[in-house]
Structures are given as C-alpha cells and as structure tokens.
Design a protein that fits this description.
Elements (H helix, E strand, L loop, with lengths): L5 E14 L3 E3 L2 E3 L3 E3 L7 H13 L5 H4 L12 H14 L2 E12 L8 H12 L6 E6 L12 E12 L4
Parallel strand pairs: 5-6
Antiparallel strand pairs: 1-4, 1-7, 2-3, 5-7
Helix pairs in contact: 1-3
Bound molecules: magnesium ion.
Magnesium ion (MG) binds next to strand 1 and helix 1.
Length: 165
C-alpha cells in the first residue's frame, strides 16, 4: 500500500451534560443522572468519530450532512447518523482502518464502558473492536466542563482507499 492511499481525519465535539437526558456516549447508554444536551441524542463521542471519518474522506461534516434545522434529525439516533455517514465514506471509495478517541469529562465514568463502546463503534465502523480505542480523561477540575458540566471529545480516524485490485 502506498502512503498516498491513507487519509487521517480529526473530529471534535462538546455537549453540556444536563438532568433529564439519557446518557448516551459511544453508542452506549450509561447509568448517570445527567446526559448530553443536543438536538439529536447528543452522543458527542459518535459525533466526533463521525466527523473524523467524514473529514478523512474529504466529505462534508456531520452538521452539514444532517443539519440541526432539519426536523428529520430531531432526536436522531447518532448511530444511525454514523451509519449513513459510513455509506457516504464507502461511496467515496474509502474504508476505515482504525479510530482512537479521547473522552474528557467529569460526568459519567468512561473506563467501565470502554469495552462496550469499542464493540459498538466497531460494529458501526466495520472494524474489529481492537482497532477502535477509547480513553477517558479527567479535566482536573479546570474549565467550564469541570464538575460534570459537560463532555468534550477528540477523535482521529485512519482511512484507506478501498483496494480495487
Ligand atoms: Mg454534537
């Protein structure tokens, strides 16, 4: 494989964590008294991963493909949005080879959910869970997201142009 068949993409997302919302992150429902606010289910992990994958493929970002102003995406399942984005990525001739994610929050504990998130995102991305990594990070009590007020997520995705031979 020559180097120019590989593409890297970066995704980032932030959501407030508020009472009365299901805590859905990484395609998994976590037991927690607050959850991400948003016009969709607010899954900041899947949003960052989707933007990383779309970015690597040179496609429009999540907010452009599925605009918040469109009623079709109100309360949307972010797993469905990622599935639709993956169809665009495959259509552009790419496959995902690995994804790595950092979830910075002092809300829900990420560590105990890592395995389930990796398995679920692997399903959605067509990857072995070993090629999807997730790490939780504390905010050290600093900044506006500290104390469980929010969640910030960074994701990188490596894509390869699908083999034609
Ligand atoms: Mg988002």
């Amino acid at each position: 494989m020559s180097a120019d068949t590989l593409r890297i993409g970066l995704g980032f997302d932030v959501h407030r964590l508020v009472p009365g919302r299901p805590c859905i992150l990484g395609g998994i429902r976590l037991e927690h008294p607050t959850g991400p606010e948003g016009h969709s289910d607010g899954d900041a992990v899947l949003h960052a991963v989707t933007d990383a994958v779309l970015g690597a493929a040179g496609l429009d970002d999540l907010g452009t493909l599925f605009p918040p102003s469109d009623e079709r995406w109100r309360a949307a399942d972010s797993a469905r949005l990622l599935t639709l984005a993956m169809a665009e990525v495959r259509g552009a001739g790419f496959r995902v080879t690995s994804v790595d994610v950092v979830v910075a929050t002092e809300g829900p504990r990420i560590g105990p959910a890592r395995g389930a998130m990796r398995a679920r995102m692997g399903e959605l991305l067509g990857l072995d869970p070993g090629a999807v990594n997730v790490k939780g990070k504390s905010l050290e009590g600093l900044g506006a997201l500290a104390g469980g007020a929010g969640v910030a997520v960074q994701a990188v995705a490596l894509l390869a142009r699908s083999a034609e031979e």
